[in-house]
Every structure is written in C-alpha cells, then in structure tokens.
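HUMAN: Mind sharing a backbone?

ASSISTANT:
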Amino acid sequence: MKHLPLKTAALAAALSLLCAGCAGAPASSAPASSGGASSSAPASDAPAPDTSVPAAPAEQAGEYRAMWVSYLEWESFDFSSEAAFAADADAMMQNCADLGLNVVIAQVRPFADALYPSELFPWSHLCTGAQGGDPGFDPLAVLVEAAHSRGLELEAWLNPYRVRLNATRPAGELAASSPALLHPEWVKEVDGGLYFDPSLPEVRQLITDGVLEILRNYDVDGIHFDDYFYPTTDPSFDAAEYTAAASGLSLEEWRRENVNQLMRQVYAAVKAEKPAVRFGVSPQGNMDNNYNSQYSDVSLWMAEGGYVDYVLPQLYWGYGYTTGSGSTRYAFENISAEWAALERAPSVALYFGLGAYRIGDGDGGNYDAAQSGWQTGHTLADMVATGRQLGADGYVLYRYDFLYKNGSWADLAAQEVENLRAANAE
C-alpha cells in the first residue's frame, strides 16, 4: 500500500469520498497545542469529490519525519526585523535538518490571525505584541525559504475554529479587522474562549478561503489542522442552529456532519488548487474524545478517503501507561497498535504524534514508570521503532522547544536528540 508522505507524491484531483465507542481515558492533546456515527446528510455548500476518478496511489517517497513548531515557539522568536527573525528560523530549521527530519509543521494561524499578510485575517499578536500589528516583513515567507534551503518541507498549521483560547491568548484585544468582530454572528463563547460556529456555511467558506490564500501565495508543502474542533458538548452551544437545520439527525450526528463538511470542502479545495499539497489532521490519540466530544469522525476520514491525505494521532502516553482505573488501553504499545489496525484508504497515510514535552516530567499515569519511563534518553527513538514495526508511515515530535530549549531536562533532551538522529540514520 502506498501513501502520501512527501511532496513528490501526487494525487489525481479530488478522491472519492466507525465509531470509537470505548471506555474513556485522559485526552492526549499537548497543553495549549496544540499546549488529541458518520452521517450521510448532503453537504450543500461543500464541493463534492469526483467519485468517477479512482483513487490514485501516491508515490512512496520515504518516511515522514516531522517537527511541530507551535505559536509557543514564536513567543521566543525575535520579530523586531526580518533579519532577526530569519536568524532564529535558520537555527531552528538547521537543527531539524541535522536531526534527520524532512518536514516542519509550523503554526501560522493559531487564533484566527496570521503570521503572514492576509486579506482575511489580522496579523497575529505574536508579531508585534498586538493583534493587527504589521511586523514589516512576511514571517511565513521567511519560514518557507529557511526550510526549503535545507531540504525540508514546510506545512502551514492552522487552527480552523479557535479565535480566542482564554483571556490571555491571544494577548490583548482582537483586531478590528478580525472576522470574529466583523461577523459576531459567526462566533460562540465557551469558558472564556471564542470559537467559530462549525455549523455555519459562512464559517466553512472562510476557513476554505484562508487555506486557498496560503496555497496561492506560498510554496507550502502541506496544510495541517490540529485537534480543536467542537469546543464543548453542551447542547446550548448551537441549540438554535440545530433546531433551524431540521436535519433529522441527532445533535451528535449533526455536529459530526458539520465537521465532515468542512474536511471534505477543504480537501477538495486543496486538490483542485495544488493536487500535490498534503492536507492532514492531528486528532487526539483518544478516539472516544474525537468522536463523542469534538465530533470529529476520524475513522471515517481514514477509511473513506476524500477527507485528508494523512491522519496524525497524538499518542502522548508512555509504554505501560495505566489509568487510575487500571486500564492500559492507552499505553503507547497498545494505543499505537489500535490506530495502526484501523481501516485506511490507499490514499491516506498514518503518522504517529510523539510527546517530546513528556521528557523528564512523565505522563502522570498510574504506574511505576510514569516518570522514569520518560527519563531513559531514548524513549522517543523507541517509539519511532515501534511505529515502524506497526507499519506507520512516519512520526511527528511535539514540540521543538522541548528538544532544543528544555531548561528543566537539557541533558535528557540532548540524549533524546542523539538517539533520534541515530534512528533516522538507519
């Protein structure tokens, strides 16, 4: 079976378009990240995949080895000038290349804002300290150049729905040009955060247009969505919209179909604009949370095709991980095998997300090695080996600073880097 690990792979136009009802477990998402029953209702506003075109197996171009770089990394970058930012970007990309990676997944739209000049979204507060402030250069263009000049591919990581996480992220007030302020009817508040309403066709179109803007202006190698979909299970979140839809679906099915429509629409748009560009998603490693709490039917996206080119679950638990109730389902060796066993369309690749942020600190599980298992200096390399044994197409590390700016566990992080480098040289 061939998948789509690197840019040299190509797909023919848009491809033809399970639930996970198991016992609950802690969410796998990294802090502030990222900090982890399908319906057949028609998507009236979504481009329909061309089912007359058979899925074209993508050319196999090697293992996908990537690094997540989040908005938290940008907080320590120097945005005072293009030269200063480029120096930071060059150092980061060189470290990733030296590690033997081939992809960097850079978060360039974390809060309905942008690390690039956009006609749809205001400048990110990360650039100048205030959302809407122009830094005087184009950070995304710098990142693309810094990556490509070192033989790395660059994927643009977008958070589709999130406008505000809490009172401090993003810092300060939203810019007057924010689509959330221009269209307050598109936005819902949840626990101090603001999120676009996934049920609205206008929201899906905004997100799709934002993807196309990047593809038309930058030579990126992929578009990446993280694991933030519906922010709540509260029925009051979208009660009026659900009633007005009169879909005949349960609330849960209707919400899942809203997310499905977005994924189909973005996938079709990417393939129509630049077929060789990847579109992927990094859901939580906890399949139950994806399906029942965030209403993302990931197993459907994997099995049918026409939604994503890859799925990248966040498998942030250690070997032997045990919950308070004694379940070992989420131990890395078990949950990775569970994901690897899911049905996959020939056009969909599977990568494992590995928790570098666990180095030294551990995963908080109810087992003896909850911390010591993350103090070996080779835990991440061991997980890479497990993924290869299971037939995964690659892996991604969350996140850069925990390997290269880990003040608490610098020696352990350096050992992990050395062992990862050796694993990538095999």
Notes: The longest helix spans residues 251-273. The chain has a mean pLDDT of 89. The domain at 64-424 is CATH 3.20.20.80 (TIM Barrel).
